C-alpha cells in the first residue's frame, strides 16, 4: 500500500465522487486515503451509500487543506460549481496534484464564465495553469501536468464527435448544431422536481434551451482546434434513464468529401487511443453499449441529398463524462498507461 | 345506439387499433361495431388485451369487405405498411368512409413511396383521392372528405412545429433539421430485439439515420406549404419510455425577426384550434404534458448569437400521432366539433 | 353549468389533487369551482402543471372555509396527513359535503392512529361521523352520507382482494400476509431521496417493513368483516414505475375449498359492481391492465401442495387508490350511478 | 497467458454468457479461449453485442466437444434448459471442468425435474456427480469438484436469505413463503410479448403463480439443510427494470427468539464470506445496492405483533444469480480465493 499513490476525493457524496470511489478501488496504483464531504463529515460514507458497506468503511473527512496535504498526493474535486473556485488554488499551492471535475476552471475567459455560470470566476492565474483534460485531444498537455480541469459530460461526448473535423478545416464552422440527450444522473444527487421520479419517468424534455453552460466550453475547444472563433447551437435534453449521453451532431461540409474519407479521418485521429471506437458504415452506437465504461463510441452518416453530415457520439456521463476521464487524466499525469484501472467492459444489458 | 355512427377497426390488435378502441369508447357519436384482425379472428379481443375485460367483449372479425360494409359506416385501417395498399380502395369503393392510419396513401409520388418504403405503391388514382389529414393544417380539406390518409407520428409533431414558418416565407428552407425522439410504442407490438425490454431500457439510440420513411412525408408537406421543393435532415431516436414524441427543430431565418413575432405567427396560425398549445417565452413542453391526450404543445427559442431558431414540439405518438388525430379527422369529416370525444386532460403524472 | 354540483379541491397541487381535476373535468354532473393550495395560492394552477394549460386556467385559492362554502357544494381534501384533522370538521360544520382522501379519519381508534401516524388524532366525534368509503364493500353506508373517509391506496387493493374471504369465515385469520408493491407516485410530489430518479430507477426495495401506517387500516376493516380482531403481516415495496399497486396476498384456508368455489365466492360478492373484475383460472392481472382507470382486477391460485391461497389484486393507486374512488364515493353519496364519469378504459400500452 | 486457465463459454450470446465474458475478462487467472454459440457460429460476437467491439474480437465457435477439449480447461454452459442435459456429460467425460448455469442438473430427482421443467431429465449418474454450487452454503463441496450445477437466480437470493434459519431448527418449516421479484433480464434475450418494452415498462405482474420451476430447487436445498422435507409457497413477479432480484421471505418462528439473536445467527453463519452482507436493525437492502456485483445483501424484521419474521434478500440476478456465482465456484474449484476477479464495487447509481 505504501507504494500506491494516495488519493483524496472532495465531494465524495455526490454521484461523481462515488463513481470515483468505484473506479479508484479497482485501480492497481492508487489508494483512497480520504473521502471528504463538507455536509456529512464524521459519518461513515456507507451510511449514505449502502452499496459501499464492507467495501469502504471510512468516515467522511471535513474539507481541511492541511489534512488533505498530509493524507494525499492527488486530490479530486467532485464539487458543485463555485466550490473549486476558491479551493483548488489552495490545494494546488499546498503541492497537491489537483483534478477538478467541476466547471470552475474550464473557461479561459472569466467574463464568459460569469455570463454562463452566474458565478464569480476563479483567479485568472490559476485558470491559466489548469490543463483542459480532454484526454484524446489534449493528452500530451496532460502528461506531467499538476492541475487538470476535467471536461464536462456534454462537451466530452460532443467534442470527441467533432474534434477530427474541427481540426481538419473540412466543415462550415457556422453550421454546427449539437442536439444532446442525457440520462438523469447528470443532474446529480441534489433534489429537484425536474428529476423527481414521477415527473421524469415516461417523459422526455428539453431544458436550458440556448442557455446551457457547456455551450461556451464546446465553442472554446472547437475554436482552438479550428484556429478561429466558433459559435454553435447546442441543445440539451433529459432522457428517462440514469446514465448515458448521446450527442447528435450536424455539420455542413465546405467541400465534397466521402463518408469513407471522413470515417478514415476519425480513425486516424484516434489511432492508438483505447477508449474511442469508430463504428463501421451504417452502424450507430447506443448509450447502453458504453454503459459503466470509459468508452466513447462514434458513428456517422453523410446524407447525399443534403450534403450534411450527422455524427452520433455516446458516452457514460458518469464515467467518460466525469470520473473515468478524471482517472484517465491521472494516468496520463503520472506517466502510466492511460487505460490503467479503466480497462473494463461495459455492463450489458 | 341506432343513431350512432358505426365504426370498424382493421388491425385492432396493434397499438394503434387498441388506442382507437379506447378513444371511440369515449366518443358520444360513435359505436364500435366490428373489431377486426387477420391474425386473431375468432378470439375475443380481451384475450390478447386483458385491460378490455368486461369493457369490450366482442370477438375479432376476419377481414371481409362485405361484412364490414354491412356492419359499419366508417372503417379505420390501423395496419402495417402495405396492407391498406390493396384494402383501402376496396373499402372505399364499397361506399365506406375510410381513414387509413398507415403510410400507404401519404406520399403522392409512387416512386418516392417505393424508394423509402420498399413496397409497391398504391394505385395512383386512390392516392389522389386520399386527403392528408393533418387536421390543424388541412382541416378544410378533411371536412366532407370520404378517404383520409392519417399523418405519421413523427410528421405530425414535426409539421405542426414547422407549418406556420414554412407557410410564412421567413426561413431558409435549406436549413431545416428535425431531431426527433420517440417512445417505444411507435415500433408497435411486433417483437424485435430493438424493443426487447432489457435492450432498450436504460438506453438511448438513433436509428434509420437519414433513412426514415417519414422524411419524404415531412418534405412533401413543407414543400406544399412553402410552394417549392424542400429537402431536409431528419433523425429519429428511441427513448426508453412507452409514449411520446419530441421533435427538436432547427431553422435559420432568412431575415431578422424577433422571437415574439414568431410566437405571434404561431398563435395566429393555430387560433381557434383546440389541440395546439403554444408555450410562453422561456417555456418548453415535455412529452408527459400531453401524455394520453390529443394535444400538440410547442415552445421556441431564438438564439441571438447564431440567428437560429429552435422549436420544440411534443405529442403523444399513439393519440395525436395516430388514433387521436384519426378521430379528430372523423369529427371533421362528419361536420362535428373537432374535439368531440377528445376533450380529455393529459394523464399526469 | 348552474345545475352542476360545485366541487372544491384542497391540495390541488399534489398528485391526488391533480388527478381529481382530471377526473372531475370528465364528469358530466360536476363543475370544479375552486382549486385550493395553501402553498401556491394566487398562482395559476397551470404554472406548476403545464399539462393543464388552456384546460384549467383558474388561479389557486387559499384555504378559506367561508370562501369554500360560498363557492362549492362538495370539498375534497387531498392533503398530507394531519391537515384534514383540523380542517375537515370545520368544512363539515359549514354544511359542505366532505370527502377526505388523507388518512386522518380512517382509523376509529385515536390511540391506534397516533401509534402508527405519529400525529395527534382527529376529534373522535368527527371520526365517528366519517364513513369509510371502500365503495364495493361499504357502498350502502356511503349512499346519502355527507362525510367520507376515502381508503388508502394499499388498503384498497388489499381489502378488495380479501373482503369476500374475510367475510366468509373460510380462512385462518392469523395466516394473512399481504406483500404489496407500489409505483412511485404513491410517495407524492414532495421531494425525497427515496424517489429521486437516479436512486429509484432500476431499483426495487422494501420500506417501512412492519411499520406502514396502512396496516391498522387493513386490519380494522378485516376485523369488521370477520367479526373478530385481525392482526396481519403487511409489507410495502417501491417499484420503478409511476402508477400501479399490486398486492400479493397469502392466506391459509380453514377447511378444504376448491379454487372454483373461492372464485365463485368473489364473483358473487362483487356482482353488479362495475369496477371489480375477477380473472379466470390461471390468469393473473398486471398493473398496466388497470392503468389510468378505476378498475381493481383480481386473480387467484390455490396451491394443492400447501393448501395456501395466493390472491393477486391490482389497482391504479392514483385512481382507484385515491381520486377515482373519491369520485365513485361522490357518485354514491349523490345517488348517481357509481360509474358516472369513471367509465373510461385503462390506457394501454 | 500460457499460465492462465483456459475457459470456453457455450451460450455466449445469451445474457448469462455475455456477463461471463465481462467477468472473465476482469479475472487475473483466466483467459477466454472460445466463445460458443450454436445459432451464430462463425460471426464475430461483437456483431450481436457491439459493446464488445475492440474488446473481444473473437468469432463464435460452433458447439464441438473435441474443439472445446482442445481449446479449454473449463467450460461454462449458459444455455437454455434442456441443452446441458445431453452436452454436459460429454464435456465432463472429455475431461473438462464443467460449470452448468442452466437448471438441468440441479434437481436430484428426475421425476421432479420432469414435472416442473416439462423436459426429459438428465442421466441420473451425472446428476449425482454434479455439485450444487451455492457457494456460501456448499462451498466445501465445490472445492476440488469438477462438475458444478450453478444455482438458479431466485433460489440464490431466497436460499441465502433462509439458509441459516433452515439449518437452525428455529422455524416452522410449513410456514415458509417467498415472494420474489425479478428484473426482466432474467427472461433472457429470447423475444416474447411478456418482456416487449411497451408491455412491461410501467407495469408490474406476477407470473407462473405456484408453477415456477425454481420452487423444487429451493425446497430441495431447504430440506437438505433442515433434515426433513420442505414444501413452501413461492411466487415470482416481474419488475420493470433490467437487473436485480429481491426476495421477501416470511417464516414463523417455532419458539421465541429475538431479532438480535437471529441477526447474530446470520452473521455467524456467513462469517468470513465476502459476498454476503447482513444489514443492521431497521435497514433493508435495495437491489440497486448490489447492481453489477456479486453481493447478496440481507435485512430482516421480526414483528412482535405476529411473531413472524420478514427477511429481505437481494442480488443482481445476472451476477450472483448466474455468471458471478459461476466464477466464484470456479475460484473455489481451483483453490483460489473465492473473490478472485469478483472484488468490484456495485455500480451506483
From TrEMBL, chains A, B, C, D:
Segments crossing the lipid bilayer: none
GO cellular component terms, semicolon-separated: cytoplasm
Span of domain Semialdehyde dehydrogenase NAD-binding: 6-145
Taxonomy, superkingdom: Bacteria
EC number, as in UniProt: 1.2.1.38
Keyword Transcription: no
Pfam families tied to this protein: Semialdhyde_dh, Semialdhyde_dhC_1
Single GO MF annotation: NADP+ binding
Keywords, ordered alphabetically: Amino-acid biosynthesis, Arginine biosynthesis, Cytoplasm, NADP, Oxidoreductase
Location(s) in or outside the cell: Cytoplasm
Recorded metabolic or biological pathway in which this protein acts: Amino-acid biosynthesis; L-arginine biosynthesis; N(2)-acetyl-L-ornithine from L-glutamate: step 3/4
One example of a Gene Ontology biological process annotation: L-arginine biosynthetic process
Catalysed reactions, as listed in the record: N-acetyl-L-glutamate 5-semialdehyde + phosphate + NADP(+) = N-acetyl-L-glutamyl 5-phosphate + NADPH + H(+)
Active-site residue list: 153
Keyword NADP assigned: yes
Annotated family: Belongs to the NAGSA dehydrogenase family. Type 1 subfamily.
NCBIfam families: argC (TIGR01850)
The protein's role, per its UniProt record: Catalyzes the NADPH-dependent reduction of N-acetyl-5-glutamyl phosphate to yield N-acetyl-L-glutamate 5-semialdehyde.
Record-given protein name: N-acetyl-gamma-glutamyl-phosphate reductase
Amino acid at each position: 500500500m505504501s507504494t500506491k499513490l494516495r488519493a483524496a476525493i472532495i465531494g465524495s457524496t455526490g454521484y461523481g465522487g462515488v463513481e470515483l470511489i468505484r473506479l479508484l478501488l479497482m485501480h492497481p496504483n492508487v489508494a483512497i486515503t480520504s473521502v471528504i464531504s463538507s455536509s456529512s463529515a464524521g459519518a461513515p460514507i456507507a451510511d449514505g451509500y449502502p452499496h459501499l458497506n464492507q467495501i469502504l468503511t471510512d468516515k467522511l473527512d471535513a474539507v481541511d487543506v492541511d489534512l488533505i496535504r498530509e493524507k494525499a498526493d492527488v486530490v479530486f474535486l467532485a464539487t458543485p460549481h463555485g466550490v473549486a473556485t476558491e479551493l483548488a488554488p489552495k490545494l494546488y499551492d499546498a503541492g497537491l496534484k489537483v483534478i477538478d471535475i467541476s466547471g470552475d476552471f474550464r473557461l479561459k475567459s472569466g467574463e464568459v464564465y460569469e455570463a454562463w455560470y452566474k458565478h464569480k470566476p476563479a483567479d485568472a492565474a490559476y485558470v491559466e495553469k489548469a490543463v483542459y483534460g480532454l484526454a484524446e485531444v489534449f493528452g500530451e498537455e496532460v502528461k506531467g501536468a499538476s492541475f487538470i480541469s476535467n471536461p464536462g459530460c456534454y462537451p466530452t461526448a460532443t467534442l470527441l464527435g467533432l474534434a477530427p473535423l474541427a481540426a481538419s478545416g473540412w466543415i462550415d464552422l457556422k453550421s454546427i448544431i449539437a442536439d444532446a440527450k442525457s440520462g438523469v444522473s447528470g443532474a446529480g444527487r441534489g433534489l429537484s422536481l425536474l428529476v423527481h421520479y414521477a415527473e421524469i419517468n415516461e417523459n422526455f424534455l428539453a431544458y436550458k434551451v440556448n442557455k446551457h453552460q457547456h455551450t461556451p466550453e464546446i465553442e472554446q475547444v472547437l475554436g482552438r482546434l479550428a484556429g478561429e472563433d466558433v459559435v454553435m447551437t447546442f441543445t440539451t435534453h433529459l432522457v428517462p434513464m440514469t446514465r448515458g449521453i448521446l450527442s447528435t451532431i450536424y455539420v455542413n461540409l465546405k467541400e465534397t468529401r466521402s463518408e469513407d474519407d471522413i470515417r478514415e479521418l476519425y480513425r486516424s485521429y484516434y489511432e492508438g487511443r483505447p477508449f474511442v471506437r469508430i463504428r463501421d458504415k451504417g452502424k450507430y452506437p447506443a448509450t447502453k453499449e458504453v454503459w459503466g465504461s470509459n468508452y466513447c463510441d462514434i458513428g456517422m452518416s453523410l446524407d447525399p441529398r443534403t450534403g450534411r453530415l450527422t455524427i452520433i457520439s455516446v458516452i457514460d456521463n458518469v464515467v467518460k463524462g466525469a470520473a473515468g476521464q478524471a482517472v484517465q487524466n491521472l494516468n496520463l499525469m503520472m506517466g502510466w498507461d492511460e487505460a490503467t484501472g479503466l480497462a473494463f467492459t461495459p455492463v450489458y444489458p
